[in-house]
Specification:
The chain is an alpha+beta fold. The chain folds into two domains: 161 residues, Apoptosis, Tumor Necrosis Factor Receptor Associated Protein 2, Chain A (Sandwich), CATH 2.60.210.10; 190 residues, Potassium Channel Kv1.1, Chain A (2-Layer Sandwich). It contains 14 helices and 15 strands. The strands form three sheets. Strands 1, 2, 7, 8, 9 and 11 form a six-stranded antiparallel beta sheet that branches. Strands 3, 4, 5, 6, 10 and 15 form a six-stranded antiparallel beta sheet that branches. Strands 13-12-14 form a three-stranded mixed beta sheet. The longest helix has 17 residues. It is globular, with a radius of gyration of 28 Å. It starts with a strand and ends in a 5-residue tail after the last strand.
Length: 403
């Protein structure tokens, strides 16, 4: 995101101000790209029906792009496609600038652009008063012209949008310039682990020994706290044997506990292989769950979401189910259910493992596929009860409620 600032200064005396302040008004800008594949299949869905992008966040608010293949209003007789940006979260008087771009996919850069950026607006930014308020164009493009243009390629359209949410604040004077050092607590604790000074517990893991500090472990993990200091703590808390965790994974776990960040994973596993990185992340996710390290667990989930492939998604999905990682599970289901991936995933060894270890997931996958077919013209992630209606007389900027 980038910011555009507009400043105005106020003072009590032009020559010798007693106090001063600065009013700062800026736009917090965000971008989203929405690809509409299978355009020809969306035709005939009906006037007022739309396909929608996933929601995206700009300026603390959620937004979505709505594309109407048969147009938004009956009076247009499906002669035009309609395109809008909608506020998808609760909001009151959200002021914003907008830009909609239909991308020329021939490479000639002759994009169709409607933008408020870079030009003066007579009445200022647009105001959206509630969830469902929209800005856009009923008659964005004639449908017959669109279908013979360079905007349509391989039966797909590409829309880029830009939202600039207006934010204002007042800054008072600052008559000091103190340089505050960046926190190096993680580095200090990491150095303590590497030095071995004061270590009072050792772990035997897969034939390797690791030394650590009880208080640090107990502070970072409630599981370690119960194991080392709880009423049911192990008798021998100076030497503990760890099972079902590989030594290399436990080493990364300790590194994170002290440093609060992961080591260089490529250096750790000795390769930049995507499948190897995914395997490490899977094992590390299980270890993070075992020791209730929620931040590490979230990091692993994020990495697994980024690294999903046909060959790894089934085992990742099974792990997400077992560890109750609902966001990771949802991403995996969406990946598997896509027509271009489903057949290939079903032919992997991981899918066989999924059927054996989590048979209930197959039922969920079938239900997910059924929902996709039932709402094939509505992007997943948008509630069924959200629909757009109403517009102004010129068919451009509209404000409406999504009931």
């Amino acid at each position: 995101m980038n910011k555009t600032r507009v400043c105005g200064e106020v003072s009590k005396s032009p020559s010798k101000p007693l106090t001063s302040s600065t009013s700062v008004t800026e736009t917090v800008n965000g971008f989203h790209e929405f690809k509409i594949s299978g355009y020809s299949l969306t035709k005939g869905v009906g006037v007022g029906k739309y396909v929608a992008s996933d929601t995206f966040t700009v300026g603390g608010h959620s937004w979505a792009v709505y594309f109407y293949p048969d147009g938004k209003s009956p009076e247009d007789n499906s002669s035009h496609v309609s395109l809008f940006i909608a506020l998808a979260s609760e909001g009151a008087d959200v002021r914003a600038l907008f830009e909609l771009t239909l991308v020329d996919q021939s490479g000639n850069e002759k994009h169709k652009v409607h933008s408020h950026f870079g030009r003066a607006l007579e009445s200022g930014p647009y105001t959206l008063k509630y969830r469902g308020s929209m800005w856009g164009y009923k008659r964005f493009f004639r449908r017959d012209s669109l279908e013979t243009s360079d905007y349509l390629k391989d039966d797909s359209l590409l829309v880029r949008c830009r939202v600039g949410v207006v934010k204002s604040c007042t800054e008072g004077p600052r008559d000091y310039n103190i340089n505050v050092p960046v926190s190096n607590l993680g580095q200090q604790l990491g150095s303590l682990l590497e030095s071995g000074k004061g270590c009072d517990v050792t772990f035997e893991v897969d034939g390797e020994t690791f030394s650590a500090h009880k208080l640090v472990l107990a502070t970072r993990s409630r599981v370690f706290r119960a194991q080392l200091f709880g009423p049911l703590r192990d008798r021998d808390t100076d030497g503990i044997e760890i099972e079902d965790v590989e030594a290399s994974i436990f080493k990364v776990l300790l590194h994170f506990i002290y440093w609060d960040e992961l080591p260089d994973m490529q250096e750790l596993i000795g390769t930049d292989s995507k499948s190897a990185s995914t395997l490490v992340a899977q094992h590390l996710l299980a270890a993070a769950d075992r020791y209730a390290l929620e931040r590490l667990k979230a990091i692993c989930e994020s990495k697994l979401c980024e690294g999903i492939t046909v060959n790894t998604v089934a085992t990742t999905l099974a792990l997400a189910e077992q560890l109750h990682c609902f966001q990771l599970k949802a991403v995996c289901l969406k990946f598997v259910a896509s027509p271009e991936n489903l057949k290939a995933v079903m032919q992997t060894d991981g899918f066989d493992y999924l059927k054996r270890s989590c048979p209930s997931l197959l039922t969920e996958l079938l239900k997910y596929l059924a929902r996709l077919r039932e709402h094939s013209v509505t992007a997943p992630g948008h509630p069924k009860d959200i629909f757009a209606d109403g517009c102004d007389s010129n068919g451009r900027r509209v404000k409406q409620r999504l009931h």
